[in-house]
Amino acid sequence: MRKLNIDEWNRKDQFYYFKDYENPFYNICTELNISEFLTYIKKRKIPFSTTILYASLRVVNEYEPFKYRIIDDEVIIFDEIHGGQTVLNSDDTFSFCYFKYYDNFHDFFENVRSVLNEHHQREKKLDPRTNQNDLIHYSTLPWIKFTSVSHARKFSRLDSIPKMVFGKFYKDDGSYTMPFSVEVHHSLIDGLHIAEYLEKFQNYLEHPATLLS
Predict the structure, then answer these.
(1) Which end of the chain is more exposed for a tag (fewer CB within 10 A), N or C?
(2) What is the model's pLDDT at position 121?
(3) Per-residue pLDDT averaged across 109-134, rounded?
């Protein structure tokens, strides 16, 4: 990881403007077309949840603004960002599991499978890892076709980690669509950056072979 030189950053003014807001986070919900993506992974019998998580993390690791974190009033750029995701337990509670990012999908898939196997053997440990910053916080709501999302926040603790939520995908006019939520710290990321992230994400979903080969 390395430190960003804030004084030479073209977003210096925006960084300081939003940094001390009581609530500096904002949320954008959209819909992603996953038709080509679904067709591709179904033919190859690849789990949807693992693959969509990989696609999202792949873009995060290829697009620098989502690797920024505020630590001790400095902006730190992490070399790699990993996934922390809610996982449903057998008693309908949830825990957090953590998945290391790998450039290669096969390596990522094997790590996810190993982590989940270990989790299902023990369950019940929440494991919030509040001091780990090289993450995206993910949730999945496969039961809900949502149009907006808000997150619980502890404002007494500095947090600049983006939060992303996958919703229930559905068929609409012949295409499969999935709601997707992105919540970010405005000192680090503007709407333009979210738009560019979503464009890159959608491009992978429309060309899954480039993502998973």
Answers:
(1) C
(2) 87
(3) 91
Predicted pLDDT of residue 123 = 66
CB atoms closer than 10 angstroms to residue 58: 20
- State how far the Cα of 204 lies from the Cα of 41, in Å rounded to an integer: 13
Domain ranges of the chain: 30-72+96-143+160-213
Query: Alpha carbon of 199 to those of 30, 186, 204: distances in Å?
Result: 11, 19, 9
pTM of the complete model? 0.96
Give the residue among 7, 33, 56 at the shortest CA–CA distance from 162: 56
CATH number of 30-72+96-143+160-213: 3.30.559.10
User: Which residues on neighbouring strands pair with residue 26, listed in sequence order?
Assistant: 184
Does position 187 have pLDDT exceeding 70, yes or no?
yes
Residue 93 has pLDDT above 70, yes or no: yes
